[in-house]
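Running log. JK asked me to keep both predictions on one page so they can be read side by side. First protein, sequence followed by its tokens:
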Amino acid sequence: MCGIVGLFDTRGQRDIDAALVRHMNDTQRHRGPDESGIHCEPGLAFGHRRLSVIDISLGQQPLANEDGSVLVCYNGEIYNFQQLRTELLEHGHRFRTRSDTEVIVHAWEQWGEACVEHFRGMFAFGLWDRNRRCLFIARDRLGVKPMFYTMRPDGMFAFGSELKSLLALPGLSRAMAPQAIEDYFAYGYIPEPRTIFQSVEKLPPGYRLTQQMFEPLAQPQRYWDVSFQQNTRLGEDEARQELVERLSDAVRMRLIAEVPLGAFLSGGVDSSAVVALMAGVSSTPVNTCSIAFADKAYDESPYAAEVARQYGTRHYVQTVDTDDYALIDTLAALYDEPYADSSAIPTYRVCQLARQRVTVVLSGDGGDESFAGYRRYRYAVAEERLRRLMPAVARRPLFGVLGKLYPKADWAPRIFRARSTFESLARDLVDGYFHGVSLMSDSMREQLFTPSFRASLQGYRAADVLRAHASTAKLDDPLSLIQYLDIKTYLPGDILTKVDRASMAHALEVRSPLLDHELVEWAATLPPHFKLRGGEGKHIFKRAMTGHLPHNILYRRKQGFAVPLAAWFRGPLRERVCQALTGNGLLSTGIFRSDYLHQLAAQHLSGRRDFSAPIWTLLMFDAFLRKELGNAYAK
């Protein structure tokens, strides 16, 4: 895996400062510590940090075609590169390396912008075609690899793998986008295409952008989307067999490497399935890595150990103190913009452990989105059934009033939180799902933000993100719709961002067989009752893996990478919570109301309410500001 940067002069062929490109490139050294490559010519510069995985001796970048007219810098893996190489050779192209990088160059020559439609893998790359005088950037279909870009006022287009590489540009505006702040305090991350800064955007998953010289900033163009058109002819037994075959193929493709390779093994269904199928196609024992928690309430390591014993893996376990909160400021520097998924802490640690043993790992990411594994899917579908029993004209006022009158019970499991359910039932499916996934509800954000900040939003609501995707999907089935929404938002914005930054911080490459786009496309065509049945998610996946994994692995309650935030904030982090929520830092931004910050702190610290998720979101925003503003913060 790698880090890339690029500068392209859209107004001509001005010289580009090589020292600046080198500085931008070096901000991402952690992504590729093995080698550094820089290419500069009038009007263009590429930088590349390399983590050597395939064709270690000859795969250096930036890499050009035979006459140097096409140049690429690339982050990712094209798993079908060997087949594409054969096809391109038949078309008359000549290769001088065995790397997947060179396939991109010749695929562009052969198919132009459509080259990305031939790639099966994870990727983000920039490509310069001197003859066509254009820069082409693209990102993989599901957003496994990141891509940030900006157009400077002077006509200089810049891109990079991480936001920090663009922040190295002199004079880049650091003005925060109000809509991004609204999004962050709803979702806990900032969905594509926004970043926290108005001046920088993310290229969305499944999009490409062609920037011509002497033209204004081009608009990204979508080249892929997932369709939930159901295949009603497929029987369940046939689907189970095909699922195993497709996942086995996706695993096999991801075992190509010239460096030590292993797998994450949490003991959950997805990672266990990946390890089981890896063991079936590996000639040597699989290396597996797990995190154990000192607090047994959060520890899944016995389940991981059971799978490791079953498949005879070389199993490595590291016990992490549950009070591993010292990473707060490290994470703020790692993610570059506010990011509030607290499972980033154990994810960082398991990547740290894995890198001590291997360079590449396979993960189980993506299974929940494709096969309906999240509990919230069950709740959302059940709520939609209730909505459809009553006309909206009667439902909205009735459940709206009940939601206001019913006492708050955010300490209880979702099934017992009638107030939250009533509030969801008063909305339509998209708004109700948004209400269910929000870290801070509409009413909480309204109380959190100052009137002047709310005015700057000009009526924008974070739910508009989901509404925009829903209007594109045009799906009637509730389960399919919320799966689609998660694939477009939560998967790239939260899950894949978390894994990319945590793994790249340790120069570790993570490959996700369950995110193979052909598998995702096939899973989307399965009837919803194959996925969610009788309140049980991943029905078809668990049935397919019955011969490979024990019952207690497949059907135990989903646990996840949780950390004890509520206890931290009333214990070792109490002083930091008080300092952040009642000090001058957050208030100095003009975004937050002092009385509400004090209320959140007082009610949580006294034990009257559990505001751990909103407080963590505020702490990470505070940590971002400390990193971004430095000594000027709160002075």
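And the second, directly underneath as requested:
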Amino acid sequence: MTETGRSRRGAMLLKGLKKLEALRSEEKSTTRKAKNPKQRALNDVETKLAKEIRLGDGIEHVQTRKTPLSNDLVKEEVQLGDSGEKALFQTNYVRLTNSLGGAFQYAVSFRPHVESSAVRIAMLREHEGAIGTANIFDGTSLYLPIQLPQTITNVTSTQQTDGAVVTISITFVKFVKDDECVFVYNLLLKRVMRCLKMHMIGRHYFDSSAPLLSPQHKLEIWPGVVTNIQKYEGGLLLLCDATHKYLRTDTVYQVMYDIYDRSPQTFEEEARGVLIGHTVLTRYNDRTYRIDDIDWNKTPTSSFLTESGARITYIGHYRRTYGIEIKDNDQPLLVSRNRRRIDGTLPSGPEVFYLVPELCTMTGLIDELRNDYRGIRDIALQTRLSPEDRVQCFNKFLRNVEEIEAARNILSSWGIKLHSNLEVEGRKLPAERLSVKTLKFDVGAGANWSEELSRGGMLVPVNLQNWLLVFANNDQNRAVEFLRAMQEVCPPMGMKVKEPTMLGVNDERTDSYVRAIRDHVNGRTQCVVIIVPTSRDDRYSAIKRLCCIEKPVPSQVLLTRTIAHPLKLKSVTQKIALQVNCKLGGELWSVDIPLKNLMVVGINVYYDSSGRCVGAVVASMNQKMTRWYSRTCVRQLPAEPLMDGFQECFIAALKKYKELNGVLPGRIVVYRDGVRDEEQVRIIRLSELLLFKSAFEKIAKDYRPKFSLVVVQTRIHTRMFSLENGNVVNALPGSIIDHTVTKSRLYDFYLVSQRVTQGTVTPSYFIVIYDNSGLKPNHMQRLSYKMTHMYYNWPGTVRVPAPCQYGHKIAFLVGQSLHQNASLKLADKLFYL
């Protein structure tokens, strides 16, 4: 678009915004109709891969017929641990019972055939006198809590379009037992949520009547609940958890206007940078969409074809369907593409949605607010729930279901009863023993050993002898104070620090920093420390690209304000020194690992807003799990395969292990992080498992190590609470549950590894999807807990095994700043911390 065109577009936005503010009226919200979720079947690729997996090789044969995940991953008879002390945990699950034992399934056919599923549902609703109001119908199958008198029941309806008579045949199929009725019960739960006047946004329900307002941040926070009924080892259980939805009070239209007002010359480019990748809410139907592009050539006056083949403008569509009058007819339209499922297929609906900016509300937190410590703190104070608050929300939901007659009747008509929240007996694993240079100690309940690290010193320090300290001339005094602090705090930890080459730059331009580093880095340079006055993504990325790709050398970027407080300077410098030591190849502490010749691998994935994907493989290189080898693979386009890159990185790690140890690892445990849902777990088991098997064969034809593949999930809603003097508190690190609330046909467990003092702790969920190692559940659980102690960026436990967290760090760096793989010269160092 020309400069004149941009000015005209900006003027139109300004004119339209004023008109919009003058004529603003409340928009009516409509509840999105619930769709019947159908069981996804294994696709052809999965079936083909399944045939390649051999029997008796640590897993059971994968059935090639269409089956749910729970039949794919079979739990053996005994997969329970027993180490540690027994402990009682309260959970956010409630047991669900059905006095009827299940539901009656009927097949429904229409003669002549009715194409539209919505019309079929409307026609059957006309005959609720015959089938009852308590029914679930998805357009094909009907589920009832009662059995109809006849095996085949025929009724008739009339087509409203042409007056044709349609015969509806309702044929009994079978009685479906409780554990096969999960999707029916979840649909009933959606009806219950509507009775509670909750609005569905995305997958969850929120209460719009009691928003938490944050006007200074232009935010409206809706409280909500996450609910889901599934079959677990303890039977049918309902999970319930509190959640929040962040809604901006300004529309996308207003955001675009602000961008134009600030940068009219680069309006289109900046608008794309701000909006693409963000999720918006259309309040007229409470649906969320991801912005994939902005179509500057389409406006609300543009037209499209309806399902009936008629052409209508967007102005006419919103006026006729929602009674909404669009105020600015010249605004561009937002583009949202229907996301492909993991098996490559598209869900129902159009491939592309066009959205009107003035009707879209931004959701989530903008980057500017995420980088604002005070802003994030303010929001956290409103949304962070203590264990007691979270349990109260849980109990309030159960009370509402019981007290509101319409909600109670929905469940009672199906014979369903919700009981009180579930208490489960779990265990508290023993404290792990760590070693630093001069100390060995057991980790306390606080799961933090910063004091022991300060007293005992680094396990393997690396002296800092040849390094660069780069700073703006205005920050020279800060740089000198930082150097003094380094020379004071490092020797007690075993690390000697010599005088660096001091490089002052005349201005704060990115080129000045890059030029200074490029001109002075040589083959003897161990590390570059850069002090920058402000946080700027472009400058940070330029420095990291130089130090990770062009001139590979470990680097540490510091903000001036980080080292500006004299009273905090020593403690801050100590943390920086620990990071620098790791980046130089040093080791901070170790945990007791009894297994010999073991390699632990972490795999993680990072996705950016443009669709680029970065996969990371981080593997241990020694017995103590203190040295790591890190590689990444970058997928530039969504269609490009990532698994080949995983295999290449994994093979490189095996070769490096042999180079350092003289032998290949005899036992390998892979922790696969970055897995979203059960469908992806199944794909990983079928595809990535073959990837690892193939890698072993490429290393050596007879190489058959003992191997375990474990999926780690952190974005879950399961909660574990301890009871202390009658009060509900967070479970302590080492708390574990491996039954009752775990899946009945999986080898899985929940583990709390962190100490949380604010808010509610969330356990991590481990699924062992392949194991021929012979490790007992106790060993697998203890190893997983041990590895949460080995993340060197924090002297405490973390939520996931250390290689998974390392994988996240390097994948994030490559995806956000480098956009290509780092130099292999840095692969044996934790340069990305």
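Observation for JK regarding the second prediction: The longest helix spans residues 678-699.
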